[in-house]
């Protein structure tokens, strides 16, 4: 594995929507993913998932080229607006876990 690959940071963001907010969370996740793909060159992967057996349970799986790319994501206007401003208030639970790529 080359040194650039060693810097990759993966993020698993697991969310539970407040009752009745499942569709709003789903739509905002789709919008956020499109904005990340369009505006963040340091983002390698940003995909949302919804548990078919538990529609209130969501997962974002993300990969960033390095710590600077992750920080750029957090500081971006679209993240602040869509995730912090609109999505987080619709959540009953939010767990975010960071991983480094195994070499």
How would you describe this protein?
This protein has 103 residues and is α+β, with helices and mostly antiparallel strands. It has one domain (21-100): Alpha-Beta Plaits, CATH 3.30.70. It has helices spanning 3-6, 22-39, 67-75, 77-87; strands at 9-17, 43-50, 57-64, 91-100. Strand 2 and strand 3 form a beta hairpin. The model has no long low-confidence stretch (mean pLDDT 95).
In short:
This protein has 103 residues and is an alpha+beta fold. The chain has helices spanning 3-6, 22-39, 67-75, 77-87, and strands spanning 9-17, 43-50, 57-64, 91-100.
Helix fraction by DSSP (H/I, runs of at least 4): 40-55%
CATH domain topology: Alpha-Beta Plaits
Secondary-structure class: alpha+beta
Instruction: Label the overall shape.
Output: globular
Counted beta strands: 4
Strand content: 25-35%
Main sheet properties:
4 strands, antiparallel
Distance between the termini: 6 Å
Query: Mean pLDDT across all residues, rounded?
Result: 95
Neighbour order of strands in the largest sheet: 2-3-1-4
CATH architecture: 2-Layer Sandwich
Gyration radius (Cα, Å) is 14 Å
The number of helices is 4
Helix/strand order, N-terminal first: HEHEEHHE
Poorly predicted regions: none
Number of domains: 1
Instruction: Indicate the CATH class.
Output: Alpha Beta
